């Protein structure tokens, strides 16, 4: 009989195609050898060097799920596996790929015109140009429709005023996709970050996603030409469609974080002796480890099923909400349980657990809070709108 892999208990990865499995192995090897040895230092400093984006671009991971313009046209499953392997090192790495590919590049690819795609996407795919996605505001997180950022016509130009917050890579991006209210509703604009009136300030005193650059953006009479508007993005639904792509990556990524925490707990309890025996030999330790395996397996099966629906073209946003909600919850509970198994040693960067646990607090919130996804699911099963 085939032995059970304690890190893939139901052999979910057997569902991967050969190309997806090869990509998994490539990204896992790169992440383990090149990123993992440095991530603690980045986390302590609160930084993520820009050269990482170039390396990810060289591997074909930026906008990999898109077609043309230097993008790989990979399957949703392949993209999910990449997010999983990167987040097994740190959520900030997955966030970089999500924001670049699922938000900024997807917005341009899906809602831009051919000139905009040609101008930005090839350089973004290689990491030579970085993008950010300006939707969230200080007064409107879960309710983006109430945004206060405005764009008004002035001759052949648009003039933008307002502010955005918690925008990944706002200080190092070359182009910002800015969502603003106009007389005709919410529209998206491509704003080169060197444009007069655009300024970004890094949010420094944060305790989660430290190996990721979070920023506040201020727009003061930012003047852009009429060609800056994304012509095929009428309304807030266009922005939400990009968020769904990012949520799909997140629900895969959280599995990587959970897997790393479980692996750390399994190794630690196997080596640590108390009362003359290994911690792993105690019933309570095995109970916690079994709990982790169950949660990770359920999350993996959920992600794989959603990838199958995505491939079939039948995946609905509400189903993505279920996956993001369930998998983020499972991952943080696995991290919390793993931390208890490492005792006080679990509080240090000598082990990855506390870093992942802290990151997952942010992952619970980004791309939709628990409450928002619960309401999305509730609406889909009752037919009753409960947001207002």
Automatic annotation (TrEMBL):
Pathways per UniProt: Amino-acid metabolism; lysine degradation; Amino-acid metabolism; tryptophan metabolism
Molecular function via GO: fatty-acyl-CoA binding; flavin adenine dinucleotide binding; glutaryl-CoA dehydrogenase activity
The record's section on Pfam families has:
Acyl-CoA_dh_1, Acyl-CoA_dh_M, Acyl-CoA_dh_N
Sorted alphabetically, the keyword list is: FAD, Flavoprotein, Oxidoreductase, Transit peptide
SUPFAM superfamilies reported for this sequence: Acyl-CoA dehydrogenase C-terminal domain-like, Acyl-CoA dehydrogenase NM domain-like
PROSITE patterns for the chain:
ACYL_COA_DH_1 (PS00072)
Matching InterPro entries: Acyl-CoA_DH_CS, Acyl-CoA_Oxase/DH_mid-dom, Acyl-CoA_Oxase/DH_mid-dom_sf, AcylCo_DH-like_C, AcylCo_DH/oxidase_C, AcylCoA_DH/ox_N, AcylCoA_DH/ox_N_sf, AcylCoA_DH/oxidase_NM_dom_sf
Cofactor(s) the protein requires to work: FAD
Where is each Acyl-CoA dehydrogenase/oxidase C-terminal domain found?
235-381
Q: What is the lineage of its organism?
A: Bacteria, Bacillati, Actinomycetota, Actinomycetes, Micromonosporales
EC assignment: the record states 1.3.8.6
Residue limits of the Acyl-CoA oxidase/dehydrogenase middle domain? 132-222
Family recorded in the similarity comment: Belongs to the acyl-CoA dehydrogenase family.
Q: What class of enzyme is it?
A: oxidoreductase
UniProt keyword annotation of Nucleotide-binding present = no
Entry protein name:
glutaryl-CoA dehydrogenase (ETF)
Q: What GO biological process terms are annotated to this protein in UniProt?
A: fatty acid beta-oxidation using acyl-CoA dehydrogenase; fatty-acyl-CoA biosynthetic process
Residue stretches making up the Acyl-CoA dehydrogenase/oxidase N-terminal domain? 18-128
Catalytic activity reported: glutaryl-CoA + oxidized [electron-transfer flavoprotein] + 2 H(+) = (2E)-butenoyl-CoA + reduced [electron-transfer flavoprotein] + CO2
